[in-house]
Amino acid sequence: MSRKIADSVQVPDQEWTAFVRENLLRWYDKNKRELPWRKNKDPYRIWVSEIMLQQTRVDTVIPYYERFMESFPDITALAKAKEEQVLKAWEGLGYYSRVRNLHQAVKEVAATYEAKVPTDPKAVASLRGIGDYTAGAILSIAFDQPVPAVDGNVMRVFSRWFALWDDIVKLSTRRKMGVLGTHLVPSDRPGDFNQALMELGALICTPVNPACGKCPVQATCQAYEQGVQAELPVKKKAKPPRPMRINMAWIRKGGGQVLLQCRPNEGLLAGMWGLPTMEAGQGELVPGDSLVPLLTEQEVPVEWGQVLGEFEHVFSHQRWQVTVVDGFVREDISVLPDGWRWANETERRRLAFPNVYRKAFALAEKRKKGLSGFQGRLL
DNA sequence: TATGCGTGGCG
DNA sequence: TCGCCAAGCAT
């Protein structure tokens, strides 16, 4: 039995709902994984875990989470930390705006809410980097509020459970799923129920080869009944990443200093430091040429050496074919424009670099070892 | 509403 | 090798 509601979502009746709540929670109690953020219900710990887990696998997150919590055990500690230090803790995790937003939001909580995560849903949802899902997760898991937390796992589960053929990429579908979640989440143990749905998606109702034989709610699953679980959820394919030819410059001067460029504050790898980077065509680095102007207003005179190597790096929307070119400066440039700096190895260890630049460093340093007699030409 | 935003693992 | 995927959010 089910009844229709305004936007045509079929909402299960009370009896059915009670049945699946009970079965799902029983399954969860028995099968849930021991995860570091499940040790207690500290809202800050839940919060950090939810941000890290956005579009990121549990196994990847765990070591980052442990280190992050050691460095920044509570809101006050994170609020006081320098952004450079916080970014360093995130290095390699990707989607770096997540941690900038988290840092900003934590500082706001420290200043406005006496360093305690607010329990008011509107206040939580207004924080930087917290959307519908994360707000629901924090409120239900940490504060036992009966609100839904619909993530990708839950959408997949709902899509199969109720045989919904809506494209889960669409926002309208997400809203529809939110309606379902609102009706299903119990006022008793709402956080466990939400986590049980996600855990079911992660362990049983997996994207490929779902383990329907082990599913605690198989008897109520419409996709299973119709034999269409492999065709659900419907998800529009993403466009393949756009191929791009990228040049990076490994420019040195004396004292082991390397020239770094800060990326623009918006777009890919926003605000992150890296090697001077340009799209091929926008500033060709020709080995053997001398005194090629660099991309700063003041034209740092660089003499290019050789191509140190090439590698590929794939982002969500871009596929970089990177060429790393060796260069050195004849004259010392004491003053660099904003967004440029020389950094020695110690300083570089302190900075956070996205993986594409870590690859470039590794390549350049490996090649550098094979180069002899070059040091003498450096200033 | 559709798109941009990282990275690593898996079949 | 390659496409797809993983506890989303901001714009």
Q: Radius of gyration, Cα only, in angstroms?
A: 26 Å
Classified in CATH, the superfamily of the largest domain is Hypothetical protein, domain 2
Order of helices and strands: EEHHHHHHHHHHHHEEEEEEEEHH
* Percent helix: 40-55%
What general form does the structure show? elongated
Number of H/I helices = 14
How far from one another are the termini? Answer: 81 Å
CATH top level label of the largest domain: Mainly Alpha
Q: What structural class do helix, strand and pairing data support?
A: alpha+beta
- State the low-pLDDT regions, or none: 1-6, 287-293, 372-379
CATH architecture of the largest domain: Orthogonal Bundle
The tally of strands reads 10
CATH fold-level topology of the largest domain: Endonuclease III, domain 1
Mean pLDDT: 88
Residue share in β-strands: 15-25%
Oligomer status: single chain
The largest sheet, given as strand count, sense and whether it forms a barrel, is: 8 strands, mixed
Tally of domains: 2
EC number: 3.2.2.31
Domain HhH-GPD: 52-203
Organism: Marininema mesophilum
Catalytic activity: Hydrolyzes free adenine bases from 7,8-dihydro-8-oxoguanine:adenine mismatched double-stranded DNA, leaving an apurinic site
How does the SSE layout of this entry go?
Blueprint: E1 2-4, E2 10-12, H1 14-31, H2 43-53, H3 58-71, H4 75-80, H5 83-90, H6 97-112, H7 121-125, H8 132-143, H9 152-161, H10 171-184, H11 190-203, H12 222-226, E3 242-253, E4 257-262, E5 273-274, E6 277-279, E7 292-293, E8 301-314, E9 318-329, E10 340-343, H13 345-350, H14 355-370
Parallel strand pairs: 3-9
Antiparallel strand pairs: 1-2, 3-4, 3-6, 4-5, 4-10, 7-8, 8-9
Helix pairs in contact: 1-11, 2-3, 2-8, 8-11, 9-11
The chain binds a DNA duplex (11 and 11 nucleotides) through helix 2, helix 3, helix 6, helix 8 and helix 9.
